[in-house]
Amino acid sequence: MFFNRTPQKKLTIAIFISSRGSNMEAILRAIRDRRLKNVSVALVVSDNPDAKGLEIARSFGVETMYLDCAPFKTKLEGAAEERIVSILREKNVDLICLAGFMRMIKRGLISAFRNRIINIHPSLLPAFPGLDAQAQAVAAKAKVSGCTIHFVDEGMDSGPIIRQAKVSVKKNDTEKTLAMRILKKEHSLYWRVLRDIVRGGVRIGA
Predict the structure, then answer these.
(1) What is the pTM of this model?
(2) Which residue of the set 41, 97, 100, 121 is catalytic?
(3) Is the bond into 129 cis (omega within 30 degrees of 0)?
(4) What is the pLDDT of residue 204?
(5) Domains (range + CATH), the chain
(6) Is residue 27's pLDDT more than 70?
(7) What is the mean pLDDT of residues 133-144?
């Protein structure tokens, strides 16, 4: 199964963040520097009105939006979900890129954008899903970890895997030191996956 689109057709994306959005910034830099072509960012969405990433996105000339999810605790659902689906459709968004968005995506948004929501996770899934993946890897004395870009489904980091990048876990690694090295891999992996999509599709499970 492939992400269904015409090769080289311009890809319109929305990026969801909760904090600084360093992966978002890496994507925006790749677009600006023409390493990533035929991709436009229609909107950057954050559930945190004080997210540094909103300011960074605006510095690239990208429209931003605060989405109040507070009534729904850890999930994005209900009225907030209905609102964002409507806005994304108005902006003709092809693909949603989760980049440090710290809420589970549920029900309506997944249905509206089935196989068109991707996420980056700091482990080699299916190992260490959920929160604190780097700490999980260190505690398990794993020899290798890394990052995964996958399609989002109704489960916890359970959607089909698109691409992965490996990072060795050193004997003296802490959660912080491992996280820093994984993040460097994330910054190069995310925009390259978008480039692959633009070039003709991404095979689920590849």
Answers:
(1) 0.91
(2) 121
(3) no
(4) 53
(5) 11-122+148-164+185-198 (3.40.50.170)
(6) yes
(7) 97
